[in-house]
Amino acid sequence: MKNLFPSESCKETQLNAFNPQSWLQVERGKLSKFSSQSSSSIESLIKVPEPPILPFFKPVDYVEVLALIHEELESCPPQERSNLYLLQFQVFRGLGEVKLMQRSLRLAWQRASTAQEKLVFGAWLKYEKQGEELIADLLASCGKCAQEFGPIDIASQLSADLNTSSYEAVVMEGNETLKTVIFRVGDEKIVCDRQKIAGLSAPFHAMLNGCFTESLQEDIDLSENNISPSGMRLINEFCMTGGLGEIPPNLLLEILIFANKFCCERLKDACGRKLASLVSSRDDALELIEYALEENSAVLAASCLQVFLHELPDCLNDNRVLEILSGANRQQRSIMVGPASFSLYCFLSEVAMALDPRSDTTACFLERLVESAENGRQRMLACHQLGCVRLLRKEYDEAEQLFEAAVNAGHVYSVAGLVRLGYIKGLKKIWSYDKLNSVISSFTPLGWMYQERSLYCEGDKRWEDLEKATELDPTLTYPYMYRAASLMRKQNVQAALAEINQVLGFKLALECLELRFCFYLALENYEAAFCDVQAILTLSPDYRMFEGRVAASQLRTLVREHVESWTTADCWLQLYDRWSSVDDIGSLSVIYQMLESDAAKGVLYFRQSLLLLRLNCPEAAMRSLQLARQHASSEHERLVYEGWILYDTGHCEEGLRKAEESISLKRSFEAFFLKAYALADSSHDPSCSSTVVSLLEDALKCPSDRLRKGQSHTCTPPARPSFDTILNDQLS
What we know:
A hairpin with a 4-residue loop joins strand 4 (about 545) and strand 5 (about 550). The chain contains 42 helices and 5 strands. It is globular. By secondary structure, it is mainly alpha-helical. The relative contact order is 0.06.
């Protein structure tokens, strides 16, 4: 999400002065480093944009907020739990804790108190697991995960909240109550049980047993009520049997409209459930949801909504779907999703922001989110997120109002948005500086506060604020990037590289790799630049550099012309050298280059996945594992990769079975290692330690390349410390 929210205030165009060809399409050594002729290009190369205002919930005290949520979860009514888990999800999102986010989302789904909440959080979890659709054949082998977040049967889970009390026949003074009533529809007459029809609703009860003239009539004309003879017969049948048989959709819609008009709740509910069972595609849902909203059929509306949500993000390209989801008013939202309106638009805005945070769709969904907020914390989050989007869209007045609302609701981080807007609108830096000074003195100081304040001061003061920001929050990348760029401008090359390497040592941030690539380019160290751009492409194949203006793949092509070509043997030597020296970025680069050759791609993608796991890049690692499976050269090799895929998606027992299948075909280090790993993580029996030791001994007896020891150290260690100890003892 960070890359989706670029700095608004960084207006400089880096490529105005920078043309990659001018740097690269020259003979090596002809352009002297830091020559006066190229100073403007160097300046544009190492420009660092201001940090974006992130659309996250960022409390001043995370521990206090998480503790409060935990306390509320223990005492709140069941219907409030899913919203609390959603808030917990937002807290972890601000911290960047992906696994904890997924856990909170799963708990919100598990604790959902209504069918609508269940379908929203189920669809959200399915959306988060989009990558698993690429390995549907694997997930199908363990049915629990293939269908875990699949569509739910809305009709069976959404209880009918109906007033089922019947209306007693009223004996009119001086007359005996009529037993039957004949309804005329056009030229046809339908004979009905008078009291059964009266029992459908209060209006029919009043018509047939009340003080209206129809109560004394045996023959009543219904021709002007948009019901056909066939429809009226089916209504009579429902009165007699309490159910609807197999009925064509057009008749069901006709009866639904009639039932809503005459407040026949049981009949309307039965029609809605019948129609809901017919919703199987987006076209079905689009055709029926308008009737559902118009006729107030919750079960039908929820069934249609479920189809849309399970087709995200693709269905957001359909203007008909967008019109329904973004144009729904408060009453329509209540029909469609009941009490889960805030959860729904949290989900939809998340999807829309991932596609394009500046889009009208994103803004519209966030507007609905603000409208759906039911308490201060929800309003605070919604206003801040919409404020971030308004800022990106240069809608400054609206953004200011939203950030102010978020601050007033208690979200201190939104002050950063107000300060940015003040500066954009022409207020002096001293105003922004003083505003942030007030925040720092009023609350427990946090890294982002000093980072923001640094933007409004110069020289030593700015450097001191950035040092303090790093001290309080070492994960902030902007301070490292600013300091490195400043040192590079002063031609203090070693200090600049040391600064950017400091953050890359524990956080493989694309923007930091990009900056180091620029450093190397300015220094004409093309081999190092080539290494970094290949690492970037490994992490994000479609990454665009220089604020999205140039594809990283294009820059790689240009740099490659100035780098000596390696033979396959050279590549393997480089890989062994870099792997053994724990140069992970260098290893990624070598593997990326080797994948262009005819080398065994399955093994290389597998090695790539191990490196990415060590670098804490789980999504990229999963992508590499899937490619390893796709390019496996043998059945036993493919089974190992499938086992790791299952293990990494939380299916240890299934991964263990894949390892055993692979061993039955061929004994290999990788298969035994997977089995030991999966067994240690899935077994709760302490005695399994000896089995794990035995498996590791078997693994070491198998032939493998010299990187296998690296493999054991790059896999994510399981939670049980006993296995970690075993690994170190056996493989050190």
